[in-house]
Amino acid sequence: MTIFERYVFRQAGGALLIILLSLSGIVWVALALRQLNVVTSQGQDAWMLFKMTTLALPNLMAIIAPFSLLIASVHTLNRLNSDSELIVLTASGATIWTPAKPLLLLAALVTMGVAFVNHAAMPWSLRLLREYVVEVRTDLLTQVIQPGRFSSPERNLTFHIRERALNGELLGLIMHDTRNAAQSQSYLAERGVIVKHAPSNYLVMTDGHIVRRKAGDEPAQVIAFDKYAVDLARFERKMDDNTGDFKPRERYLGELLNPEPTSARYRKAPGRFWAEVHERFSNPLYPIAFVLIALASVGQAQSTRQSRLHYITAAFIIAASLRVGGLALNNIVSLQTIMAPLLYVLPLAAAGGALWLMSHPIREPAAPAFIANLFEAIASLGRLLPTTFAWGKRDLKPLRQLPAPVSGVNRQ
Fold first, then answer.
1. Which of 68, 130, 258, 309 is in the most buried spot, having the most CB atoms within 10 Å?
2. Maximum pairwise Cα distance, the chain
3. CB atoms within 10 A of CB 200
4. Confidence category of residue 394, pLDDT binned at 50, 70, 90
5. Looking at residues 40-68, what average pLDDT do you find?
């Protein structure tokens, strides 16, 4: 690369890193706020919250990275034009491909990063996140339930204990479950202990009662028991089992192309698997398309007196519409796999249109004809005026009647 191309690459690369870290930080904070109940209501520490939110971040990098590159490219090109560097470069005979080469190289690096995230980092992080979710929900009762407090790990489900013994036994246990609108259940027991037995965990209660009340005016049913075991999965949020039937996004490419025959997810919606395959291969095309859109909008040299805000706004609107259209097409492909080629056509068509605009730049519209005629009439009138008069004085004295300047000192 030439000195100028290395300069553009450094400028755009530095801006990309700053913008990518900033957007990732904003998304991370949003994810952390959504998962804050892991600390507040599920008894986990801040380190678990940090791990869970960080592992969910690679799932969004395929959307964050191309937009970060678009912002960095537009910022760099606009700065080069504001500093008259593009103007000088164009005046020296260079074309738009001179600043385009380093930006396209940066787009190629982002493309490889997005492909790596899609095929390796995202499935690994989502699988590990799945394990942490299982761990959190496994330790639900042992960490959430506090003596003398009513705890609600989820809506319409309440736990309470009188105290916790040194051996971990729960004394004075109450569980109230109203998640089923047709029937509510309350469990009261003198003692309870959590028994972990794969693949599930059980709460074994002794010396207690179960109070069941159905909707309506029917009387409540009271059942006494000496010992009763409850599967804790019944009192947790609905979650997919951990038997290896992963979601499409949690699978590696080989598992998407060749899913196991026993997979209930594949039998239920095979289109989602193929939509995920095409999405992973079409996503890396967006960084290149976004860079070409930035070059087509603000890559041409313009006078610093001309506003480029409308071009920048148009670039962001086109890029956002393009990405939203890609996400909508992904949902359509999951239902109609024959539409899969459109996932590739959309970014490639945008890139082709941007290339055409780069070779046929949009020029500023000329002034209206009546304004041009008005200026021509004023110029003609000025040529008809006598050039022997001095302008700017009230009496407009002819220049030939003015006294001649003194050329020297009159000596006596």
1. 68
2. 142
3. 14
4. very low
5. 80
